[in-house]
Amino acid sequence: MTTPMMCTPPTPGIGLRLAHLEEMVAARPPVGWLEVHPENFLANPHAAELLAELSVHYPVSIHTVGISVGTASGIDRLHLIRIRGLVDQINPIFVSGHLAWSSYGNEYLNDLLPLPYTEETARLVTSHVDELQNTLGRPYLIENPASYVGFKSSAMNETVFLHEIVQRTGCRLLCDVSNVVVSAHNMGSNPQTYIDDFPAEAIAEIHLGGFTPVEDEATPGAELWIDTHAAPIAERSWDLYAHALRRFGPKPTLIEWDNQLPRLTTLVGEARYADRVARTILMETAHADAG
Ligand SMILES: [Fe+2]
């Protein structure tokens, strides 16, 4: 497998959705990079053309939502070959997807469903990540999911499982800091500890996205936090982002917003704020080293 060099974008990027595509081409706001869902472009030649134009001006990352690394029925080869076509055309800085399953056979679900963290699952995910990386000819980034339930059968925690997959496949990781906040709330765990245990050496990218609290029907009076990507980044996600940067050092960071889309300028503002947080942590670290 060849390993193209991954460059580090200088400033945070934004998730680019179809509703902002034409404005993005016309206005070209100062963001460090763009991340797209390839599934939005595979059957939309006009959108693919605009994306190719943008890729001349911005580094582009491809974040798959239709590749199901945890599916027991195998990766959809046809979909993967289509994604490779877009990857070959755009030459993205990253190609990523979730540690989850979302399809079985010809059935596609609209959700990212959880996996039990067992040796059997590790072997399954490993073979699928190997297949992805061999087909795409580049490292694949696995993203930690937002969790709502766990499995009694899990034999290892999520960070140990991710470490196993990295060791077995040589893949890289995408740390979604907001997913850590959501999972920690829903599962009653400590988000800082998760970040402290995360395989830092494999991190290529960080995500930040908004979540929505809803009433937990299973536990009256309790709240469930849903990873909706439909709201501004919460204060506790910014705090955990600062904690993550202190541990991981500066990493390419992306603002994700998929539902109830705001104006493009709002997304650019969130990216600028992420940049300010990162610069503050960098200065803090530099002062600590100098002192
Ligand atoms: Fe994410």
Describe this structure in words.
Helix 1 (18-27) crosses helix 2 (45-57) and helix 8 packs across helix 9. The longest helix is centred in the last third of the chain and has 27 residues, at 264-290. With 291 residues, the protein is of the alpha/beta class. It has a single domain (13-290), classed as TIM Barrel, CATH 3.20.20. The chain has helices spanning 18-27, 45-57, 77-90, 119-136, 158-169, 177-187, 191-197, 235-248, 264-290, and strands at residues 13-15, 34-36, 60-63, 94-98, 101-104, 107-113, 141-143, 172-176, 203-209, 212-215, 223-226, 253-256. It has an eight-stranded parallel β-barrel with strand order 1-2-3-4-7-8-9-12. Fe (ii) ion is lined by residues 143, 176, 179, 207, 209, 256.
Output the helix-strand order.
Answer: EHEHEHEEEHEHEHHEEEHEH
CATH topology name: TIM Barrel
Shape summary: globular
Q: Which regions are unreliable across 5 or more consecutive residues at pLDDT < 50?
A: 1-8
Mean pLDDT: 93
